[in-house]
Amino acid sequence: MKRALISGVTGQDGAYLAELLLAKGYEVHGIKRRASSFNTDRIDHLYQDPHDPDRRFYLHYGDLTDATNLIRIIQHVQPDEIYNLGAQSHVQVSFETPEYTANADALGTLRMLEAIRILGLTDKTRFYQASTSELYGLVKESPQTETTPFHPRSPYGVAKLYAYWIAVNYRESYGLYACNGILFNHESPLRGETFVTRKITRALARIHQGLDKCLYLGNLDAKRDWGHARDYVEAQWLMLQQPEPEDFVIATGVQHSVREFVTRAAAELGIRLDWQGHGVEERGIVVAAPDESAMRPGQCVVAVDPRYFRPAEVDTLLGDSSKARAKLGWSARTSFDELVSEMMHSDLTEARRDAYVNSGGFRTLRNRE
Ligand code: NDP
Ligand code: GDR
């Protein structure tokens, strides 16, 4: 039985990947951070009783900023494969916490690699590094491939640039089987609630249910290549099953703007947005409201709030994953419309439940930022 270790197992990708690897018969170990409130919502369904003799899913307390802890976990697990998904992964937050982001995302990757080397596992353990399209930042060519030059635009992107190169360096220096998956944005109903897609579907669902009034966003013209996380974790696994370690771009090859995402998500709810500008609202400019047929008096749907603008923005990303198609036999299965629909309906179910709870006199959270 193969043994895998996943850092960031409590995150979006960690949850999908743990599910995938368990389905493939792996023994799966995950690193979770100690938190004062529960942080295992996404993987609770995978939990197994410690007394179960057939147990294949284990969690270990750990942190990418703690080298000795990583060494101890890796020594104990002796993994065949490590998926380094743990990171402070929010681009805008990285401008607020640049040092922590560098510590977890850049040095955290180095700590993992050093642990493999110190423990003499370079010939046994294969290593996946969660690299990102944010490396391209100020894009030099479109679409972006494995050879497009990098120009990161945030402390997150810069930290991930170090992580990318240190993985390459350990491959070249020590013969470690290390791969960078340069993944473009991928989303799902498990996406963190402050990333733009989930923020949109969650807020629209709550507006639809009368729980909130307005969705405040930043740059509506940013363009991204959005895929489904379920498809992308399969590529992560495939990268570690090849004869030689290589780096791969993983993307859909289709691009949409934030504005288009909002329009498509609203359409799922039967709301047609009118983007002609609807005056000034307290925190920003109202840029979209439902057309007359669906509009309730005074209802605002989308407003721009400058607090969500970033000090430096990545305006456009579009990936070309021809190499992954040719060498891994991988291509994205979920279309943009299917992705938006799945996320919208998942959040609608949640909002309906919240509306029901509210109707009983309890208050649920308003939009998360
Ligand atoms: P999430 O933000 O959903 O998950 C991040 C995970 O990392 C969480 O489990 C989090 O734990 C954990 N984590 C954060 N800080 C630390 C730390 N100091 N030590 C250990 N674990 C930590 O990210 P995704 O699942 O979306 O992304 C997975 C990886 O892929 C990340 O590295 C991200 O940067 C990268 N990536 C993501 C893309 C995307 O579009 N989703 C695209 C390209 C790359 P906790 O639950 O406690 O917060
Ligand atoms: P990104 O994802 O920065 O691409 O990083 P995010 O969803 O945060 O932003 C995408 C684009 O939308 C614009 N935007 C907003 N973003 C947020 N979060 N909130 C808003 O209100 C808002 N309004 C407009 C942003 O400016 C940006 O242009 C994600 C993360 O998962 C990274 O970890 C990963 O590496 C990259 O994707 C690929």
From TrEMBL:
Its cofactor is NADP(+). Its EC number is 4.2.1.47. It comes from the Bacteria. The keyword Manganese does not apply. Residues 5-343 form the NAD(P)-binding domain. InterPro entries: GDP_Man_deHydtase, NAD(P)-bd_dom, NAD(P)-bd_dom_sf. The keyword NADP applies. Keywords: Lyase, NADP. SUPFAM superfamilies: NAD(P)-binding Rossmann-fold domains (SSF51735). It catalyses: GDP-alpha-D-mannose = GDP-4-dehydro-alpha-D-rhamnose + H2O. Belongs to the NAD(P)-dependent epimerase/dehydratase family. GDP-mannose 4,6-dehydratase subfamily. HAMAP family: GDP_Man_dehydratase. Catalyzes the conversion of GDP-D-mannose to GDP-4-dehydro-6-deoxy-D-mannose. This is GDP-mannose 4,6-dehydratase. It comes from Dyella flagellata.
